[in-house]
Design brief:
It contains 20 helices and 15 strands. The chain is α/β, with parallel strands linked by helices. The strands form two sheets. An eight-stranded mixed β-sheet has the order 1-8-7-6-5-2-3-4, with helices on both faces. It has a seven-stranded parallel β-sheet with strand order 11-12-10-9-13-14-15. Helix 13 links the parallel strand 9 and strand 10. The two termini are 43 Å apart.
Length: 454
């Protein structure tokens, strides 16, 4: 998206309501239910830990207890749900640090995979903690300790107690890279009181497109700007040079494709497509990177049940000459697999999920194939499909012929790469527009607040 920020029509005046936080029946009920659920939290966390979905060494963070010291001075808190949102917001955090180098940055996320990703990408430029569970006492403990000068939420990750508690303390809030699916919009409209009670506390909403900006204003946001999608401006996911070299050596010259960010049931569809074309493409191997790496063992078992030979990266294995499907069930290596593959099927699109991010594949020159469900990235897919830079299948049975045609036509792959790059170029610019919109809300560097007891 080129050009200046677009406003959807409401007043440009800041709209903080710290002195009179809106409340409603739904919100009071939610807060009561989260309080009542507190005795069950230790059992829930232990169960999730047993499934690899929580980090037992950092359980206290989920209860609002910090595990690291808060630095003196102003601090901006950024919250992202998982890896995709984190990847999109990190360049914005880096840009804001350049513009306000004396301001501390804290990133919170909610998943084990996102914590690992943040650890590999943040370095010393920002702090990371798990976001507290959305229970009033946990949220209060978190805010008491960190005392952020500004809270920035990403996409549609809006937790009622977090928002309400921050608003009561007079902490200005912003929502960046904001999006809202059709289903979410319908749900919020049915709970208009709750929606208004939450979204009215955001000083500014930076939406991915004009329709999304209108949706946020309709459910209570007082100021929404159209800035574009931060993910278009995000750098390509990193490639590990040693890992890439070893993978390329193991794959030799075998033709291959990657199925990336796949969800349950999609891996079977990919395996069936592989079986349908492997006899016609000599040496073919499929690389499968599940959206949730902890599913690696289950994915491998299911694919092996189809009579295919499977190896798993999480076990330290590399593909050998007999491997049919290589499971990339590790964290932070998706860029390596995109770089090694001329074609990428992007998951979350054969099921009614809305699709995963195609932009990362394009940045590594992998030609994108997607299923029918793509509303999570409608702008990006719209540009890619319109430019001839991606292909869409309507059903799992169409995957095999599309993959076969692409893998047999190097000239077409190269043409589609150029088309994809051109298509996405028209959507760029969200990073600088977002930074410009947020800067007036950032604390001054001379703010030297010190946390009592911190």
């Amino acid at each position: 998206m080129a050009g200046p920020m677009l406003h959807t029509g409401r007043s440009d005046a800041p709209s903080r309501q710290a002195s009179g936080v809106t409340d409603c029946l739904e919100l009071r009920a939610y807060r009561m239910l989260t309080r009542l659920a507190r005795p069950a939290v230790p059992y829930i966390l232990r169960f999730r830990e047993s499934k690899g979905k929580e980090d037992p060494q950092r359980r206290g963070e989920r209860l609002g207890r910090a595990s690291i010291l808060r630095p003196d001075g102003a601090l901006v808190w950024v919250h992202a749900a998982s890896v995709g949102e984190t990847s999109a917001v990190l360049p914005l955090m880096e840009r804001m640090t350049q513009l306000r180098p004396g301001v501390n940055m804290l990133l919170t996320t909610g998943t084990v995979t996102s914590a690992g990703f943040a650890a590999s990408r943040l370095g010393t430029s920002a702090l990371h903690q798990y976001v507290p569970l959305d229970e009033p006492s946990y949220v209060s403990a978190f805010l008491d300790y960190w005392q952020p000068s500004l809270g920035i939420f990403t996409e549609q990750e809006v937790w009622p107690n977090l928002v309400l508690s921050a608003a009561r303390r007079g902490i200005p809030l912003a929502l960046v890279n904001a999006r809202m699916s059709d289903r979410s919009f319908e749900r919020w409209q049915k709970c208009q009181g709750l929606a208004a009670a939450l979204f009215s506390h955001f000083e500014i909403v930076l939406a991915q497109n004009a329709e999304l900006a209108r949706r946020f204003e309709r459910i209570g946001a007082s100021r929404a700007l159209v800035v574009g999608n931060l993910k278009v401006d995000s750098p390509a996911p990193p490639v590990g040079p040693v890992a890439f070299a070893r993978l390329q050596q193991a794959l030799a010259s075998r033709p291959r494709f990657v199925a990336a960010s796949t969800h349950a049931d999609e891996e079977i569809a990919i395996a069936e497509a592989f079986k349908a074309i492997r006899t016609r493409i000599e040496g073919l191997i499929a690389l499968v990177a599940p959206r949730h790496p902890e599913r690696g063992a289950a994915v491998a078992e299911a694919i092996a049940g189809l009579g295919l030979t499977v190896r798993r990266r999480a076990l330290g294995q590399l593909p050998d000459r007999d491997t049919d499907v290589y499971i990339a069930d590790t964290i932070g290596e998706l860029g390596t697999f995109y770089a090694a593959s001329p074609v990428a099927f992007i998951g979350g699109s054969l099921i009614p999920h809305g699709g995963q991010n195609p932009i990362e594949a394009v940045r590594h020159n992998a030609v994108v194939v997607t299923g029918p469900s793509i509303h999570n990235f409608s702008d990006a897919y719209g540009a890619l499909l319109a430019s001839g830079g991606a292909l869409q299948v309507k059903a799992p049975g169409e995957i095999a012929p599309v993959l076969e045609a692409l893998l047999s036509d190097a000239a077409r792959i190269e043409e589609m790469r150029e088309n994809a790059t051109r298509g996405l170029a028209a959507l760029s610019g969200a990073l600088e527009r977002s930074a410009a919109a947020l800067l007036p809300y950032f604390p001054a560097e001379e703010d030297k607040r010190v946390v009592v007891g911190g």
